[in-house]
Specification:
This protein is an alpha/beta fold. The protein is built from 16 helices and 14 strands. The protein folds into two domains: 296 residues, Rossmann fold (3-Layer(aba) Sandwich); 132 residues, no CATH class.
Length: 491
């Protein structure tokens, strides 16, 4: 492990205002730590920390086969050479993207190919172990490779999975998104070839028809940022940081404005909470440039208190995970229970929002005197009302294609196929394909099937026998038929 003290030296620095690079004399920081001392102090702080918040950058995925941004041969240098740019960072700006979208998309297709072949590093697995121990409260990543999800750390979503542990601040190169309707689609090798051929990918979502899919990756000054990362994420970050005992900055060089902005906000929130003495911030990076870059971007350098560990994330994070591991798995069981409760609360909140929207749309349709084709969430809510609010499974991740569901008693996800849906009457055929992530539908459905209520009859002799339990697909068909019948009469 390469732990070393920093020494005075002359380094080049990029100015924030776009002026030419200038040489500055680095000053010795009197509170820098000797070899091994910083790591030992970090381990001791982590041992007593109940809520750890981690911010990770490209250094976390460097050993996974992903390119970093600012190192020699990295993404900035490759973009500069390929498109003959004055600065490779320009390719990652929205101005370039808006002006030369096919070229920017083709470059991201190459990054996607890297991500497909990448494997989670020791640092990713260590983060998962810290999560299982009940100590990692949230993981904010600036990476777009999706590797945290591969080790079982589910991704946060402001609507579908508010209990997710990993927050992808800058998106995920494994997905395309429509800037118009925000519909998402998974990437594939065929789509990558199409994009490299400079062919646009139209949005296939029903009712859209005008959007062109783009990579779900945040650009500098992105004019379509809301379809990548919603504004809700900053409220979540503030809440998490204010409650944290330890904030780790892992594999971040602080050469980009976004990372320094996150650090400044985090320090401000910790100060607002009156916890500067209780919450420790630590940098884990093999280069001493990271702390220097951070200091040059801060206006109150004298008040900046940061524990600097000069080592690779693959070296430090496994040591942290070992220190936090609880014998007998008690910590993991407690963490699982907490996550189950949080997921249940998130599902209840999401269900309440769907029901409120359903009531509003039904009231609007009744006032207009017409019966419109039901929206997808109304169909799911109708099934939920038919089935009853006793979900057999709880969702902890957005779904796409197959439903990833987690039982409360298990830490490992079980992937179940979506039930086959029957052919529906025409008023619903346009609405149902939008159910790419039918959270409410799956929450309502029971693996044993559901029973429809008995039909009322004025003639007891003509009353039919109670129908047998229906599968989820049959329940959908029953609801579709009930919804379609009034529309036929209206026509």
């Amino acid at each position: 492990m390469r732990l070393r003290a920093r020494a005075p030296e002359v380094v080049a620095e990029d100015s924030d205002n776009g002026l030419p690079r200038r040489l500055r004399k680095r000053k010795v920081q009197h509170h820098s730590y000797d070899d091994g001392t910083a790591l030992q102090q970090l381990l001791e702080v982590a041992a007593g920390a109940q809520k750890i918040v981690v911010f990770s950058g490209s250094g976390l995925s460097a050993s996974s086969g992903m390119s970093t941004f600012s190192t020699r041969g990295g993404l900035y240098e490759r973009a500069q050479k390929k498109y003959k740019l004055a600065d490779g960072k320009m390719l990652f700006t929205y101005a370039f993207f808006d002006r030369q979208r096919p070229e920017a998309q083709a470059f991201f297709a190459d990054i996607y190919s890297e991500a497909v072949n990448a494997e989670p590093a020791a640092g990713h697995h260590a983060l998962r172990q810290m999560y299982d121990a009940g100590r990692l409260h949230r993981h904010y990543t600036l990476n777009i490779d999706g590797l945290a999800e591969q080790v079982g750390m589910d991704t946060w979503h402001h609507e579908h999975n508010t209990a997710g542990v990993t927050v992808e601040m800058h998106g995920n190169v494994h997905y395309l998104v429509c800037p118009e309707c925000h519909a998402m689609a998974p990437m594939s090798a065929a789509l990558a070839r199409q994009i490299r051929g400079r062919e646009p990918v139209p949005c296939a979502a029903p009712g859209c028809g005008q959007g062109t899919m783009r990579f779900k990756v945040m650009m500098y000054d992105d004019g379509e940022a809301e379809c990548i990362t919603p504004d809700d994420v900053m409220d979540l970050m503030e809440e998490d940081v204010k409650a944290a005992d330890l904030v780790l900055w892992v594999g971040i060089s602080f050469q980009q404005s976004a990372s320094t902005m996150y650090f400044r906000k985090a320090r401000c929130w910790i100060q607002e909470a009156g916890r500067l003495d209780q919450c420790v911030q630590a940098l884990v990076n093999p280069s001493d440039e990271a702390l220097f870059n951070l200091r040059t971007a801060m206006s109150n350098q004298s008040e900046l208190r940061v524990l600097e560990v000069l080592a690779e994330s693959d070296e430090v994070l496994p040591l942290l995970a070992d220190r936090l591991r609880v014998p007998g798995g008690a910590g993991a069981a407690a963490a699982a229970a907490d996550r189950a409760r949080a997921a249940a609360a998130a599902a209840a909140h999401h269900r309440a929002k769907l029901e409120e929207a359903q009531r509003a749309q039904l009231a609007a349709a009744a006032g207009a005197g017409a019966v419109a084709a039901p929206a997808p969430h109304m169909l799911a809510a109708a099934v939920a009302a038919l089935v009853g609010q006793q979900p057999a499974v709880k969702l902890e991740a957005p779904l796409s294609g197959a439903a990833a569901v987690k039982h409360e008693s298990s830490l490992h996800p079980t992937v179940l196929p979506l039930p086959a849906l029957p052919v529906l009457p025409s008023p619903l055929q346009a609405a149902l394909p939008q159910l790419s992530m039918p959270a409410a539908l799956l929450h309502a459905a029971s693996p044993q099937g559901v029973v429809l209520p008995e039909q009322d009859s004025h003639d007891s002799e003509q009353q039919q026998e109670q129908p047998p339990p229906l599968t989820t697909g049959a329940a959908v068909a029953a609801v579709a038929a009930a919804e379609a019948e009034p529309a036929v009469h209206a026509a």
